[in-house]
Amino acid sequence: MPTFDADGITLEKVRDYVWEIPQEGGMNAPARVLASEALLEEIQQDKTLQQLKHSAHLPGVRKHAICMPDGHQGYGFPVGGVAGIDAEDGCISPGAIGYDINCGVRMMRTNLTYSDLQGREEELVENLFSNIPSGLGGGGVVETGMDGIEAILERGVDWALEEGWAVEDDLAHCEDEGVRHEADAEKVSKKAKDRGSNQVGSLGSGNHFLEVQRVTDVFREDVGEAFGLEEDQIVVLIHCGSRGLGHQVCTDYLRDIEQAHQGMLNQLPDKELAAAPAGSQLAEDYYEAMCAAINFAWVNRQLIMHRTRQVFERVFDRDWQDMEMDLLYDVAHNIGKKEVHTVEGGEERELFVHRKGATRAFPAGRPEVPAAYQDVGQPIIIPGSMGAGSYVLRGGEQSLAETFGSTAHGAGRLMSRTQAKNEFWGEDVRDDLREQNEIYVKAQSGSTIAEEAPGVYKDVDEVVRVSDALGIGDKVARTYPVCNIKG
User: What cofactor does this one take (predicted)?
Assistant: First the structure.
């Protein structure tokens, strides 16, 4: 059997693009990496494989812990990691979901073509940057009191609909229709609510962005038609999460879980994997607080989309409805969800599916897929770097068997932010993108652009190629940046 040796960890090749770390010691299941050898060479450069192996020690892990093709080192649990953990006799781990709860992406279609934008890129990017809050700290589209925040936390995008920030069609094209009903605002600390009160409708900083893109390729015409995508069409991609509120929820519960469940923590190889046993009060409280943060993030992206529609109306002097600026889909990629999956022996079990830097990828027919996409499969949105483009996929037929219905979430980082700032100069990156690629970028600082330079990321084309080859996420369309704003 072919093997791959990575700094003391030996992976066995199961088949093309599937590598397994055998179960040993305290592991409760094997661990698998889904990658080409080229991607595996990059994945082994940091602690991703060690973290993946550690994640298989979590109680109740079923089948195998998984790392996606875009995997890289994270906090305890690798980014690009997926674990299906038994909801009855397993656990839930905040670190395996992430600090930016429901960091995710939404794509909005338009009936504009690239030629409609040419010559107006600078006007558009300046207007978007001026009207969509970004960067560290406060400032959002709307500022709300405690009653408003609690309504957002419990009602999600339904709150935005009632307040005039959404239309019914937006809810129908959002994962879970934009609300996790298990959410309980009382399980979210006042500190977290305070952090969120002036950040509703803001991009934040880091790798979050809003990008105007053009569709360059449609690979599956029938699915592209179902998604409303065609070549040369303009679309808008929004990538952000739950801001300071979600970060505080994760921080609060990690601290509480470390203190209350020291016994479980002592059995794990990394304290950053701290977990609450299924059925415990803290597991229930965290799940309900996490669902509330998920709702906050969906409202956050909804308000950004609403403001984007208004900007396009001013720049192009047309109603957003006339430009058919409709939501294609919104999907999370830092999330924990109770889902029913087939596990070892063909048994169906309810699991806490932890997806950290991984996207749900359900195929056609799965009841959670929106009605509009039931016949073709759930849309998957995979952003690439500023200079490489992004992809729209659909849930693949093999995703449920291979990955608990999951695939990659982006290109995946190759270098840390510190290293990126040492190697790239933001203004040079911005100027090169404009002069060589006709991509217009506007950010709060040059360092933000340097941190997100195209050379910082893996090859998104290769990540998507592996996903498509494995049948977990099928290529539908490719997009390329026109304008990009960042914090």
Answer: Mn(2+)
Q: At what angle do helices 146-155 and 281-316 cross, to 10 degrees?
A: 100
Task: Give the SS3 label for residue 312.
Answer: helix
**Top-confidence residue, 486 or 170:** 170
Q: What's the pLDDT score for residue 115?
A: 97
Q: Is 410 annotated as a binding residue?
A: yes
Determine whether the annotation assigns residue 357 to a binding site.
no
Domain count along the chain: 1
226's CB contacts (< 8 A; 6+ apart) are: 372, 373, 375, 376
Q: Strand, helix or coil at 233?
A: strand
- Report how far residue 415's alpha carbon sits from residue 132's, in angstroms, rounded to the nearest whole number: 28
pLDDT in tens, 132-146: 999 887 788 888 889
The CATH number covering residue 332 comes to 3.90.1860.10
Q: Is residue 421 part of a domain?
A: no
Residue 451 in this model has a pLDDT that exceeds 90:
no
What is the average pLDDT across 227-246? 98
User: Are the C-beta atoms of 196 and 101 separated by less than 8 Å?
Assistant: no
Is residue 390 marked as binding?
yes
Q: How do beta strands 104-113 and 233-240 pair?
A: antiparallel
Cα–Cα dist 150/155, whole Å: 8
Classify 457 as helix, strand or coil.
strand
Enter the tokens of residue 349.
């079990």
Query: Would you say 437 is a known binding-site residue?
Result: no
Closest alpha carbon to 417 in 355, 485, 487, 356 = 487
Range of the domain at 122: 3-414+457-486
Does 333 carry a binding-site annotation? yes
> Residue 194: which of 152, 146, 155 has the closest Cα?
146
Measured between alpha carbons, how far is 205 from 77 in angstroms, rounded to an integer? Answer: 22
- Is 343 contained in some domain? yes
d(CA 317, CA 101): 36
Report the catalytic residues: 409
> pLDDT higher for 308 or 138?
308
Q: Mean of the pLDDT values across residues 433-444?
A: 91
Distance between CA 396 and CA 407 in Å, rounded? 9
First to last CA, the chain: 47
- Helices and strands in the chain: count of H runs, count of E runs: 17, 20
CB contact at 8 A, 377 and 459: no
Rounded CA separation 481/434 (Å): 11
Please indicate if the annotation marks 173 as binding a ligand: no
Closest to 332 (Cα-Cα) out of 361, 352, 309, 371: 361
* 52, 31 Cβ separation under 8 angstroms: yes
What are phi and psi for residue 135, nearest 5 degrees?
100, 175
Please, which residues bridge with residue 336 across strands? 354
Q: What does the alpha-carbon distance between residue 202 and residue 153 come to, in Å, rounded to a whole number?
A: 16
